Amino acid sequence: MPNYIRTHRPGAQLFFTVRLANRNGDLFVREIERLRHATRMTRTRYPFEINEIVVLPAVIHTIWTLPPDDSDFSTRWRMLKSQFSRGLPTPAHRDPVTIRRGEKGIWQRRFWEHHLKDTDDYEAHRQMILKAPVQAGLVRRPQDWAYTSVHRAIRRGEYDPQTPVGLSYAPSPTKAYNPTAPMRGKPRLTRHPLPNENSAVTESKSL
């Protein structure tokens, strides 16, 4: 198996997907306060900005901005995972590799990261994060899911809560990225089927 070499750029904006080892689990939402605490502890020790985030039962999608003089996102995720796992019981069923490595087996070992290269790339991943609960079939509207930064985006006027839930952003060709520049033109929208209405989840607490 070839070795995966991660790219590290100081001050980068990155999209991440991290998962539970048990893809059918719901530990992230059952232990949301533990996750919040782990995130606060990590950001205190190793500062970074959370631009957007959604916490699903077994998956987290998020965009981070690292400090201008820092590129070490791996250490941040290592600490966050460790802080979250501390005090939780070891899962009953762990694979032999996890046992051999002495790992608790709560998180999937690897995570996906993507360096955002331009405005369209950023916006495409941002829209994916905001609409992930709908695409997962958990709710009919992004704002009906509690554990997402869409509530902050709505308060700031950065997301229209009346946006049709079946629309998702599709990026146009790559161009030079300036995160402070205003968006030009209109994004292309693609229609997707809606989830079953009976799958709606109502939570009162925001992430």
TrEMBL record:
Biased composition (Polar residues): 196-207
GO terms assigned for molecular function: sequence-specific DNA binding; transposase activity
InterPro entries: RAYT_transposase, Transposase_17, Transposase_17_sf
Transposase IS200-like domain ranges (all copies): 9-132
Segments of this protein annotated with the region Disordered: 167-207
Gene Ontology BP term (one): DNA transposition
UniProt-listed NCBIfam families: REP_Tyr_transpos (NF047646)
Name of the featured protein: REP-associated tyrosine transposase
Species of provenance: Ascidiaceihabitans donghaensis
Gene name in the database record: rayT
